[in-house]
Amino acid sequence: MEQKKRTINWGSIGIIVAILVLAASIFFTGMRVSNTVKVNIQDLRSTIKEEIAEDLRKEVISLIYAFRSSSMANRQISAEDIKKGYQFAQQVLSGMK
Questions:
Q1: Calpha distance 83→69 (Å, rounded)
Q2: Where along the chain do its domains lie?
Q3: Which of 1, 14, 89, 97 has the largest CB neighbor count within 10 A?
Q4: How many angstroms separate the CA atoms of 74 and 25, rounded?
Q5: What is the residue-level pLDDT of the chain in tens, covering all 97 positions?
Q6: Distances 63 to 56, 58, 66, 83, 91 between C-alpha atoms, Å
Q7: What is the SS3 assignment for 60-78?
Q8: CB of 70 within 8 A of CB of 76?
């Protein structure tokens, strides 16, 4: 009986290794992109919370200013009181930074 000599097909092995490396790089790139997106979403949430808090502070300060100035003059709140309140709130908040 004659035995057949087995040869290694190095081209096929090279292609298989290249495909495995490519699959691994795609997988790890996807993981990295996913983590980056999660971090960016968390940063965006914290930024939005800070902006909302600052806007609320500005609104509260301006309305309190308008209420106090109108009550000191014993009259209703006017648009001018609110405008002055916004200016005052802007000065106060810019001084806090």
A1: 12
A2: 11-96
A3: 89
A4: 72
A5: 567 777 778 888 899 999 999 999 999 998 898 888 888 898 999 999 999 999 999 999 999 999 999 999 999 999 999 999 999 999 998 887 6
A6: 10, 9, 5, 10, 14
A7: HHHHHHHHHHHHHCCCCCC
A8: yes
